[in-house]
UniProtKB/TrEMBL annotation:
Organism of this sequence: Toxostoma redivivum
Signal peptide from the UniProt entry: 1-22
Main subcellular location: endoplasmic reticulum
Catalytic EC class: transferase
The protein, known as: Alpha-1,3-glucosyltransferase
EC numbers on record: 2.4.1.-
Regions crossing the membrane: 110-133, 145-167, 173-197, 227-249, 335-352, 359-386, 398-419, 453-471, 483-506
């Protein structure tokens, strides 16, 4: 009972923070002609309610795809339709075809914000609570509410969902999938992940760990017995789930192909939001390797779009291959969670057409291991929020950023005493340190070095945050600070990728894991 009382307080606090952030600005507020993601979500409601399904993804006189055309899978469209149906009952002007474009009012803002709250309450927050209660370690059970507090106070997701404006449904469904797999409900987990993937195609970032973990379980059970049966059940579950999601589009091959073209517009080239035409101009700043390199090398001018695609695929594949092989050969729930982080980070750093918000696809899996490596998880989550700074400044979310980020750090310090969890063993690097043999003695000063680097990192992020918000850049370098934020964040992420892969590859204990039989 006491645990549930603490959890109730945690949830109320998390909801209060979300409500406070939602009172502020949102993406594209009062900025015609395109406005921003808020208008995109409203426009999809307009389109899905007023047009037949066969026109949702096609360019027509009533559906100009250049104006926030639908570019997410069918579940996003169905969700938009449900929201539009409710909006129509309240005020038909909110979703009126053509005339509602750019609609802005306080009642409508309240409605849109409420739809995000409902999504949080029904999908994301329950998944977090149940996940924290399901943690196996006794010490973690005692800290279920504090673990949930830190996850629910992660500022990156709050600022994007309730500030910038987007729905947490795909991430919430992915969390439900992880929760199901942790209880060996593999078929339910497969359904949940299929739903997540059919809500946002960016869930592909998590697809390989799910595939490798479940395939590894089938191998362990034996492909001539129980393993083959499980494999057949999983394949059938995936096929049925996808068929149900795509059923309204399945009667016409051209419909399916058009949706796929909208989901994967490869003709745009390597960059989506980070087309650096020069080191001094970049409309949106993404902290991945391609955008950072483009400060020095104009990749899009040197390499053709098709070659960019092949290069991106090759580097991404090679970077995530070690973790996937390890997970397939030695499937464990702990290895699965770390592989979710590593693979998603590989996709973010090296894949095709990355948006700055995609870092949330890495951050949420990191939240799942915050009880295991609280120091590194907290550090990563702070950097991920910092990497969103240019977008947050554009959306006038500086104050919420300045309040929620220190609050999150304080919660992690109080909950996990992170500055005391910096030994090689705490960071799960003991096996790696022992493998260095003659260099093991260097690890004696490792905790002090790591703490120093952490404090230096925090100081650098704080200074760049203040400069970005308060100091006008030089005229000949108008994007100096956003580019600096992107490059500094990218360097952090590359080091984190190395760290997570070391933990995965040198882990032979799989502590607290049930044997797969």
């Amino acid at each position: 009972m006491e645990k549930w009382s603490l959890m109730t307080i945690t949830v109320l606090l998390a909801l209060t923070v979300r409500w406070a952030v939602s009172l502020g600005s949102y993406s594209g507020a009062g900025k015609p002609p395109m406005y921003g993601d808020y208008e995109a979500q409203r426009h999809w409601q307009e389109i899905t309610y007023n047009l037949p399904i066969r026109q949702w993804y096609f360019n027509t006189s009533d559906n100009n795809l250049l104006y926030w055309g639908l570019d997410y899978p069918p579940l996003t469209a169905y969700h938009s339709f449900v929201c539009a149906y409710i909006a129509k009952l309240i005020n038909p002007d909110w979703v009126a075809l053509h005339t509602s474009r750019g609609y802005e009012s306080q009642p409508h803002k309240l409605f849109m914000r409420t739809t995000v709250f409902v999504a949080d309450l029904l999908v994301y927050i329950p998944a977090v609570i149940l996940y924290c209660f399901s943690l196996k370690e006794t010490s973690a059970k005692k800290k279920a509410s504090t673990c949930a507090l830190c996850i629910l106070l992660y500022p990156g997701l709050i600022l994007i969902d309730h500030g910038h404006f987007q729905y947490p449904l795909s991430l919430g469904l992915a969390l439900w999938a992880v929760l199901c797999l942790s209880h060996d409900w593999d078929l339910l987990g497969s359904v949940a992940f299929c739903l997540a993937l059919n809500y946002k195609q960016m869930e592909l970032y998590h697809s390989l760990p799910f595939f490798c973990y479940l395939l590894g379980k089938c191998f362990k059970k034996g492909l001539k017995g129980k393993g083959l049966v499980l494999l057949a059940k999983l394949a059938g579950t995936v096929l049925v789930s996808f068929a149900a999601c795509w059923l309204p589009f399945g009667t016409d091959v051209e419909q399916i192909m058009q949706v796929l073209r909208r989901l994967f517009p490869i003709d745009r080239g390597l960059f989506e939001a980070c087309m650096f035409s020069s080191p001094t101009h970049c409309p949106d700043k993404v902290a991945n390797i391609w955008c950072s390199l483009s400060v020095l090398i104009k990749i899009k001018n040197v390499i053709s779009p098709r070659t960019q695609l092949k290069l991106s695929f090759a580097v991404t594949f090679l970077s995530l291959l070690p973790a996937c092989i390890k997970l397939t050969v030695q499937p464990s729930l702990r290895g699965f969670k770390f592989a979710l982080v590593s693979c998603a980070l590989s996709f973010f750093l090296f894949s095709f057409q990355v948006h700055e918000k995609s870092i949330l696809l890495v951050s949420v899996p990191v939240c799942l291991i915050i009880n295991e490596i609280p120091f590194m998880a907290t550090w990563f989550l702070l950097v991920s929020t910092f990497s969103l700074l240019p977008l947050l400044l554009k959306d006038e979310l500086l104050l919420p950023y300045a309040v929620t980020t220190p609050a999150f750090l304080a919660a992690c310090l109080a909950s996990f005493s992170i500055l005391e969890k910096t030994s090689a063993e705490d960071l799960q690097l003991k096996a790696f340190s022992l493998s260095l043999k003659g260099y093991v003695s260097w690890f004696k000063s490792f905790p002090r070095i790591v703490r120093s680097l952490f404090l230096l990192s925090l100081s650098l992020m704080a200074v760049l945050s203040v400069l970005s918000a308060a100091v006008p850049p030089p005229q000949h370098l108008p994007d100096l600070f956003p580019v600096a934020v992107a490059v500094v964040s990218c360097l952090h992420f590359l080091l984190f990728l190395l760290y997570f892969n070391v933990v995965i590859l040198w882990d032979s204990k799989n502590r607290g894991q049930k044997k797969i039989s």
